[in-house]
Amino acid sequence: MSALTFSAKHETAQRVDMSPLVCQLLKDMSLADIAAIELQNGKRKIRVDELFDISGEDSQDIIINNSYAKLDFIGKELASGRMTVQGEAGAYFGMGMKSGELLAGGSVGLYAACEMKNGLLTIKGDAGDFLGAALPGNKQGMKGGTVLVKGNVGQRAGDHMRRGVMLIEGNAGDYCGSRMIAGTIAVMGSTGRFLGYAMQRGTILLWKQPQLSATFNDCGSHTLAFLPILFKSFTSLDSKFAKESATFNRVRRFGGDMAEKGRAEVLVKLQNEEKNAAFSAASFS
Amino acid sequence: MLIKLTGGTVYDPASGIDGKVQTLYVQDGRFIKQPANDVKIDKEYDLKAKVLMAGAIDMHTHIGGGKGNIARMLIPEDHRKDPVHRSDITRSGCGHAMPSTFTTGYRYAEMGYTAGFEPAILPINARQAHMEMADIPILDKGGYVMLGSDDYLLRMLTAKKDQKAINDYVAWTMNAAKAIGVKVVNPGGINAFKFNQRKLDLDENNAHYGISPREILISLATAVKELGVKHPLHVHGCNLGVPGNVNTTLDTMQGIGGLPLHLTHIQFHSYGNEGDFKFSSGGAAIAEAINKTPNITADVGQILFGQTITASGDNMRQHANHGFASPDKWVSMDIECDAGCGVVPFKYRDQNFVNALQWAIGLEIFLLVDDPWRVFLTTDHPNGAPFTTYPHLIRLLMDKSFRNDMLATIHPEAQKMTTLGSIDREYSLQEIAILTRAGAAKLVGLEDRGSLAEGAWADITVYTENADREKMFEKPDYVFKDGELVVVDGKVVHTKWGTTHIVRPDWDSSVEKDLQKYFDRFMTMKVGNFKISDDEITEDGRGSLTTHSLNGVT
């Protein structure tokens, strides 16, 4: 069976709510029924076949071609199957995703992976602000699963994050990991100001030295046995995180945010050290 | 336009009509006598086998004022689950626990309600409350102005000002705030909270002013009576939600010396402290006291299970309960030394012993108070449950077997602590019409509402008789507001604007001299700006004011 493919015929002036087009909702629906679904488009409604050419039949493997940055809520609460976006996606990409795989070939907008619960969400381009965050006013952001971003992410990545893993190959904006409750964020590139602002628990793993606020305490250098295990868990991913060359187990640890519970940590890869270097007194300098 | 409503079964307790088949005529918004045979009928509705009642009146519902907006901001997750789209005649919004103003109006009308009264208008926020209510379509509205924890009154009481001076201040404030009644919330307690008191019993003194809640109640209830305001002092008593507060409530009833008093959401004030969990029902004691004390009226403030949000002026008690916030966020604030505000989201659970027993206590009070003219159907929207649960509540009152089925599902220990299962009473349609129409209109002091008699405004609800009372009351066939058809089959088909009901008690203009000085020295606005003029409500062309008469004043 070939993938159920929606190819956008043109771009709309107003935003489109794509939440009806997810695997679990299209299961057992005929193509004619799918074509007749009405999507909210600004203040109007638009039929699916008005906006998309539809081909293929496997509703558990959906492809959206010629996607553009006004298609919001793609993969909302995805519960099974796979969805692939060729091109850009709008806001709320993979919001509340429960399982399955979601992939964006290009960049995505605000609130991608917000309040995600499980599954694998991959973004090949950049992500906007509030990646894996809580919706405004809500108390808990991402609660599980893995988010992989190959590009850069905006501000407030992992805001109110509760559980799960966020892997960022590029740079992160300001307030990365702000108000984090728990979970893991790894950033290979640079990070902005106010890293881990009001973080309660959880780990931010960094390749580059961040600019930390005064409410994070330097806890010295450590050899952490769990890091190789963590990196091992990434080996199945199509990512720089899966490469042997990316791994390390020597870090400098900062505890904070002391203005909050202070049980969170920022781990920074120790530069210019041989991998698996022996424990040395210099670590405590 | 002359409308004929043919052959409906009429329940109009205000005129003593209990289930009589009648034909009604409406012209220019009011009921009229049967016109002469040669007069042309513009529109006839065949209502044979339908139930006719006046439009329902919610005499205690939080639909305006700053706390509503705080509640809205606090629970976006609740709104997201209930978006309301626009239609050609209705505006978009959102619903559930604290709906947007427009949705409030539509949903009330769709249940057959044509009036709602905001029970806690802070004088300093009255303008905002009226502006917000001005955005509620279809419904008539009005409000009770909140006094009792305001610095000015407490200073007067401390200075032992005479009753006349207090009456003048109360009357002046009612006029300035465009109110139809006076409310007191945790008398003096909101103020005492600011002086670090975390509880205030009926005879306990405010640490700063040396005034007890009882003194405040007596002076305000006297003022309301002497001014001739028909709605008795609307009292949210001391110790809301505290186990054992039933004694405080009984003491409040007895200690008022026969003055008219309306005890609001009395369910929250009817708790004993017996049993393994030190929490028990005081419902029977409260109902018995109401039965014996004719100057007392009460609305229940029934809780129903599910997510809601509690919004109250009682920041002392809201602060004490913030640990139960679900979701875990809350607001408690002072409002310009006038009063306070506490907003705590709440999820009532049937498997929680306390919540389950609260549910049973409310129903006990409904069923054990003998006189339906002195008890009123409320959930203290949104504090006990959103107003959209009223049809479900009506079914609980009218259907014993349904009630007992529900009782069997709640926390087993709570079932043992209530006598609800042994109460056989089922409300009749006439009694429901008293609770929600005639009684409410009488209590609020509305002269020509809540009735289907000649001369009254034609606010009408038409239901199809259904043994499932929830289904019957949630979807009226027709609702008329001021003689205009606004709802058909439970959906809004036409919108209009209701009026604002007020009273204008008289006061001695010398009272303003002191107030002027006080405002200049302490307040954030000038006394001239504090007073709401009639124009502010009417000048946009859709609001209007309806002034009701006072006792002993023509």
Helix share bin of chain A: under 10%
Separation, N- and C-terminal Cα atoms of chain B:
31 Å
**Which class best fits the helix and strand makeup of chain A?**
mainly beta
Give the radius of gyration of chain A.
Answer: 20 Å
Broad shape of chain A: elongated
C-alpha Rg of chain B, in Å?
22 Å
CATH-derived architecture of chain B: Alpha-Beta Barrel
- Beta-strand residue fraction of chain A: 25-35%
Provide key terms for this protein.
heterodimer, A: 285 residues, mainly beta, two-stranded parallel sheet, B: 554 residues, alpha/beta, TIM Barrel, ten-stranded parallel beta sheet
Characterise this structure:
- The complex is a heterodimer of chains A (285) and B (554).
- With 285 residues, chain A is mainly β.
- Chain A has a domain at 110-284.
- Chain A contains 4 helices and 17 strands.
- Chain A has helices spanning 23-26, 31-36, 48-51, 226-232, and strands spanning 3-8, 16-17, 38-41, 44-47, 52-55, 58-67, 71-72, 82-87, 101-104, 120-123, 146-149, 165-168, 184-187, 203-206, 217-223, 250-256, 264-269.
- Chain A is elongated.
- Chain A starts with a strand and ends in a 16-residue tail after the last strand.
- Chain B has a single domain (56-449), classed as Metal-dependent hydrolases (TIM Barrel, Alpha-Beta Barrel), CATH 3.20.20.140.
- Chain B contains 20 helices and 26 strands.
- In chain B, the strands form 5 sheets. In chain B, strands 6, 9, 10, 11, 12, 13, 16, 20, 25 and 26 form a 10-stranded parallel beta sheet that branches. In chain B, strands 1, 2, 3, 4, 5, 21, 22, 23 and 24 form a 9-stranded mixed beta sheet that branches.
- In chain B, strand 12 (233-236), helix 9 (246-254) and strand 13 (261-263) form a beta-alpha-beta unit.
- In chain B, 55% of the residues are buried.
- Chains A and B meet through loops of A and helix 2 of B.
